[in-house]
Structures are given as C-alpha cells and as structure tokens.
Amino acid sequence: MSKPHLQSVRDPIRVRVPEPSFANSTCTTTAAPAAASILPNSSAPSKVFRSPRSPCRRACTGSANTNTPVRPSSSRPDAPPSGPANASHLRTDEPKPASPKPTTQLRMDFYIESELQGAIFHDPKFTEHFLCGDEVKLNAVHEYCRQNDVHYKETGGWAIPEIKTESTLYKPVLDALNIIREGVHRVKSSHALNDDSSDHYIPPVHPLFKNCSSQPVPSDEAETEKLKPDIVLLEDGPEHWETVRIPIEIKKLRGYHKAGMKQLSRYARAMFAHQLHRRHLYGMMICGSEATFVRFDRSGILYSPRIDVCENGEVFTRALASLLMMNRMDEGYDTIFTTRTNCDGRLEYFIDLPESAFDGEKSALAAQSSVAPSTGEGTLTRRFKVMERLCHRKSISGRATIVLRIRQVFNSELETTRVMHTRSMTNAKRKRAEMEAPSPVEYVLKMIWRDPKRGSEGEVLSQLHGFFGLPQYVWHCDAPGECSCSPPSPAKWGCYKCVEQTVQVKELQVCDKLKDISISVPLDDETDDPQLESVDTTEFHSTAYTRKHRVYSYILVSSIGAPIWTAQSPREFLTAVLDAILGYWQAFNRGILHRDISSGNVMLLDKDQRVPSRRWLKLRTVKPEDIDATLMDSEVLLREVVAKLDRDPTGILSDFDLHVMHSSVPPPEITMLSSNPPSDIPRPNISSANGRLQHPRLSYEDSIGSKPHPKRRKTNSRGSLVDPLTTTPTNANLNPSAAHESQNQDDNQRVIDFRTGTPAFMSVRVLTIQVGQPYQHSYLDDLESFFWLIIWSVAAHIDSTQHTPSPTAQEMLNGLDESNFGLMAGWKTLQLTHYPILRSAIINLGQLFCNTAVTEPDEPHSPLEIFPRVVTIIQDALSKAD
Fold this sequence. Notes:
It holds the Pfam family Pkinase_fungal. Among the domains are: 41-67 and 563-668 and 717-882, Transferase(Phosphotransferase), domain 1, CATH 1.10.510.10; 114-192 and 209-332 and 506-538, no CATH class. The longest helix has 26 residues, at 170-195. Strand 6 (281-287) and strand 7 (290-297) form a beta hairpin. The chain is globular. By secondary structure, it is of the alpha+beta class. The strands form 8 sheets. Strands 2, 3, 4, 5, 6, 7, 8 and 9 form an 8-stranded mixed beta sheet that branches.
C-alpha cells in the first residue's frame, strides 16, 4: 500500500489551513485570513531550525525514567466508536473526524505481523495443557465416531484424500469435524439428561461446522470484510464474526503451515474486533493431513504439535472433542457477559457486576435495581446493558483496551422486555411501563489486560477520585478466574487469589522460521487456490524468551465522556482541553506522569453529568514540611486557577494505564491475603489440563485520602500509589526526577522500544528516541502532546456540510500518521518552527513548545512556570471568543 506523500523535512511546507467550523457552532472566533500560510511572511528573514540535538533532556522536576516496552498496535487516533450494544456496528448518525488513511486488510496485516513478532511459541504439551477433557466422555465420543464412520473404525484414522487443490479437502474434513461435533453433542446431552431431574429437559441447540470458503463472513470492519475462513463453528445465531466460535484454515500442503498461521491470525483479529466478551480463542489449521491447534490470547500465540488425522485419528478426535466440551470460561468467554439477539439479528450485551462494587454509591434506586444472586453462586450482582462501545482496541496481543458505556437494567425493565418478547403489548401498557421505570444510571466500564509488574490504573484513579478534570472513580478489580483453591470459593467474586491472566507455560519452543507471520498470503478475494511459499516449520529448539504476563482487569467510573471531536463549538472544544490539562496538572502534583495524551483520552462531559464528589473544593491548604516544595507550590497555583473557574469540569483526562511516577515516594506496606508473602509478583503456572491458573493476589492498604474508599478487590500492582501531597514519606529528600517504577529488565527480553503513547501525539523529543534507548519522560512531553491534540482536532474536523477534509488538512493528517518516527519528528519540528496558524491558542502554544522542544531542549523548565503559561494561553484564547 502506498504511503502518503510527505515533503522533505528540509523543504518548508506551505499549506493553507481554513478556519475550522464546528458543528452547530454558536460562537465566533477571531480568525486570520483564509489564505494565511503556516510560514512567516516570505519577506521576513528565515531561520534554519534543526531537530533537537539530543533526545535526552536534562533531568528536572517532573521527569521520570521510563521502561515500558510498547509495540506497534492497531490503535489509531481516528478510530470511531461503534453503535449501541453491537460488537462492531459503526455510527452513521453523526459526523466523524477525518482520518489519515483507511484501515485495509493490507494495513491490518502490518499490524498483526508487528504485534505477533517474537510472540509465537510451540508448546510440545499443548494437548496435555489445554485439550485433555473428561476421559469417560472422550471414550464415548471416540466410540460414537467408530460407529458412524467405517474408515475411522477400520483404520483408526480419518479419510483425507491425496489432493491437487485446496477445495478438495473441504468436504472430507467437514464430514469428519461434524461427526466429532455430533458425538460431543450426544455425550453432553446424555450427561445433562442424567443430571436433570425434570421431565422437560430440552437439549441445547448445537450448530455444526460450516463451509464458508465461498463467501466472506459478514463483518462491520473494512479490514475484515473480505475474510473467508474455510470452515467455522458458529454459536446459535446469524452468521457473523460476532458469533464465530472456532475458525479453521485448510491448506493443501504441509509446507503451507506458516501461511495458515497468518490466515488464522487474521481470523483471530476479526473475532477479537467483533466480540466484546472474548478473553482468548482457539483455532485450527489442517495442512495436507496434519492438524495444528492454535490458541490466541493477549500474550500472542501458542500452537500444538502437528497431528496426522490419517495416522493418529483417535488423538485428533480426543483433542477436538476436548475443545468442544470446554465450558465458556475455558473456551475464552468472559462470563460476566450474557448476550441476546435483537430484532436486527445482532447481539446485545449484558454485564453482571458485583453489588459490592457499588458500596460507595449512595443510590436511591438500589432497591429497584436488578440485584439478584448469580446463578448457583450466591453473589449479589447488578445487571447492565452495553449501550455504546467508546473504545475497542482491535489488536490480538497487548492491553486490548475496551471501554463501554453501560446502563443499569431494572427489574421492571427486565420484566417489560420479557413480555415484549413473548407477546404483544398495547401502546397504553407499554407507555405505562416506561413511565414507571426508574431513571437509568449509567457508568463507564473499562476492561484491560494490564502488566502486573506496573502500577495499576485502578489504583491511580482511586487516588485521584473527585479531582477537577479527572474521572469519578467507582471501583476496580482483577477479573476472577476459575478458582483452584482448596476448597474452591463457591462465589465467582469471592476468591481474591485466582484471577484471569495469560498463561505462562514452561519449556516452550520456537521455530526460527515461525517467529513471525511475515509471509505473503494473497487476499481472500484474489484466487481460490493460491500458490504460496512453502516453509519448513518442523524444527524447534528451546528458548529463553518468556511470554508477556498480563492480568485481565475491570475499572468502573461514573464519568460519561464523549469523544473530544464531538464538540459543538470551538469554545466547547478548548474548554474541555483546558479542563483535561488542569486534570493532568492535578495528577502531576501527585507524582503522576500520564504519558499517553491523545484524542481518545481527552473526553467531553455532558452538561448534566452527575458529579458525586468535588474533592477539588476540599484540598488541604497546609504545606507539610517534608513534601517537595516545587510540587506544593504547583498545587497552590492550581488551586487558585480552579477556584477562579467556579464551575464543574466539562472535560476530563482518562486512560492512565501507561502512567509512571515522577517522585521518589516509598512503596506502601503490603498486606497479604495468604500466609506466604512473595518476593515478587509471581507468574501464573498451569495447574490443570484445562489450562486453569493459580496466581496469588496481593492486597495493598490504602495509604492516602481523607475518606476510605468502599471495599474492593485489590490489584496485583507492584506498589499502590502514594500521594506526595498528602503522605509523609520515610525519606524526606524527594527526588522528583527519579522514576517510581522498577528499572529491572528480564535478561531474556528482546530489544524494546521505551517510548509510550500514540505516535501522532508524541512530542518531538520522544519521537527522536532510538529503539532500545531509555530516556527521561518529562511533563513537558505530555503538555506538548496536548498541543498536537489541538492540531490534529482542527485538521480532522469536517463540517456537517462537508464530506472530506481539505487537501491541506489531509496533508497534515498524513504527516501525523507517518509510520517512520524520524520523519514524523522532522515534520513536527517544522510545524513548531513555522506555525502562525489561525487560533491564538495554537500560535502561542506552538511558540511555547517550539522553545521547549527545539530551541531550548536542554534548558531546565519549572512546572511553576510552564503549567500557568499553558493554562493562561488557552484561557486567553477562550476570552477572545466571547
């Protein structure tokens, strides 16, 4: 795919940037003439500016060493949210920002190749770890297959013919799969019937494997709309990527194993992108007569040894039957979710959260809420309906962030819905039911696969609860896994030790020719029987590399934010950005650097947004003698600014999962829930054939806050946050330039990229950091990211009367989406050097960050100087809009 045209950094870029007219704008702003160039007057003497001489800014107050390895992902600044409840349905009823270039299947291949490089491992004991079901049931399935397939009975293997084309394999493979599938269904039904004492047992629906090679599986994403998996097993429901359980890829030659892995990776991405409730998933490929089972999770790929379905048919039968007999959790579904097919044939999602999560919420509606014991578990829960997908990172591995707007479902509403689905209601009855229903309560639920060695975002938000420009925290916890304690906890939310996380398997192997999936595989619509590169992937060796350890976590807040690009006027937009900067300033004063300022992390609040806590009105005014003087003075300045605003925030800064501490505060004492204190965060080990994990959970005592938070499940962070403004440290000599997070790196890790954030919004200095080079991340880098956020938002805005951005704006978006960080750094340097753009905020912020990032990169800058200047610049711009 061709890259966007990018002029040389040495040549000035002359562009004309029209004044952006926001939707339904109600205020006017002072604008320069429409023909204004971003260059100074041509008659004025020009200066030659260069990129920063050194990427290492002098250590100063508000900087931190960073060692968070990040890898390219599918996160893009232009990703729109999806429509209500549907897994991937896109909005069509409101304008969207412009984008640098569409995400196509070719671009998707780039993403999956990057994120899976070095994360593909061969597990020689795969079936023992994951596919070893109940022996009695497996024997019954094997016997059923013997009775229903003559070849299998006589030879012990499945009939796979010698073939010349791939399509020849489809029917014999499909027949074998469905015989095993039917056998599993019969066995499960007979056991369920024996366990059911009623006379009205109805066997569940059991869809069979289906040939989908002739047409694409329906998709909501452009990048996956042409994917045609050869065979799929669907859940009960319409054919769509949101209902695919197991994808299967067929290749005619054994040497096409690597190509098959790439195809399966495409299918895995499609499934993760369409299924909100997927934690991990299984797929399978059959190359010639050899079957390979593949497990995709947020740490990459694990795959099994090859099984010859002709020579070792019984081994294959038992492995597949074990997969088909897995419970929902082991198969990779998040069991707090339930789904229902709506009238449009799409899935609606419902979520059950524990009642204890809302202990701190004083809701008069609690008595009417959908509080009920979870099935067979005795845990009180509240049911919520997913109303909107605010963020959904479509990557296979990584943090895989999903952010949902959820609305509480009440008992009366549930009853009304049941009636409407079973029989018709008169208009009067329906109207009366709607009037009697209590007002809905909404929250935002974030689901993320976090690094347990890093600080927990939930802990950060709990410490920042109630501050101006920051989310209103409610609850957080690590997702419960299947309890392996003795005796096991009877309640899903009752065990604090067993959490859901990526598996860590010992004695893994790698194939040097399958460390990545960088191989050419034609698009599915180009040819039916492509000639692929044959790669020998049969040789393995042990490796010192380990899989990335991630823990699945939930974070719940009551602040409902809309994307910043939905602002209805320039004033609303700039005000929200100002409030987010004030929120960042508040976090900074408590020792926190955000490190991921982007368009997706600055949110717009509704005018009627409920604000349960206004802690910013109750800040301390007494300066502790042993607290860093600069931070205390910075806090005083911030309080003065917020007090003068005399209003609630209209925007917030969210998403602190890449945060780092910039103050040397001592870690809190650890209170253990078990009797054996660990020396470090332990990695999970497989403890059963189904891949269930044991992982003790640590609990940290709250160390700050004037009011205790409601009881909640703690997370396995290396240390809970300690507020430098409200906690007395044991070491009085604070060094704000030291990092709080550990600098230890595993010896067996690859060369890493220490930079964090979304490249389009990274500061010029961060972009110039070389891969493998640690650096000091400064608050100046984060503040400069706010500037690039404003630039991107202005360029990306499309008026309601337009359909595409202007050529100038599109060129700017392409510059902000350059995959070469060096070129992007040069482009940004040029913009900072020559940027008399229309708004006074952009002009003055551009001049400020031109000084800090380009002309004075080595000069120390005090937050007592920089924060007030940034706030004043935006406030002055807002005052000119009056």
